[in-house]
Design goal:
- This protein has helices spanning 2-18, 25-46, 51-71.
- It is an all-alpha fold and 72 residues long.
Length: 72
C-alpha cells in the first residue's frame, strides 16, 4: 500500500505539472477524500460479500474500463 500511495502521488503530481487537471489541488483533494471514504466503506462491506462476487465485480469493472479505452 505504501508503494501504491507513492506511485499514485507521483502520477497525480505529474498531471498537475503538465496542466492536465484544470483545478489542480482542489480536484486532487476531492478525489483523495472520495478514495479514503470509499476504501473504508469497501473494507467494511468486503466482509459481508462473498469473494466470488468481489472478483466478478472487479472483472466487470475492468472490462468496462477497457471498452471505454478502446472506444475513446
Amino acid at each position: 500500500h505504501f508503494i501504491l500511495a507513492i506511485m499514485a502521488f507521483t502520477g497525480a503530481m505529474t498531471h498537475v505539472a503538465q496542466g492536465d487537471m484544470a483545478n489542480g489541488w482542489h480536484t486532487m483533494l476531492a478525489i483523495g477524500v472520495g478514495i479514503v471514504l470509499g476504501a473504508q466503506v469497501g473494507a467494511h462491506f468486503s466482509h459481508q460479500v462473498k469473494p466470488l462476487w468481489i472478483v466478478r465485480t472487479l472483472a466487470i469493472s475492468l472490462l468496462l474500463v477497457g471498452l471505454r479505452l478502446v472506444f475513446q
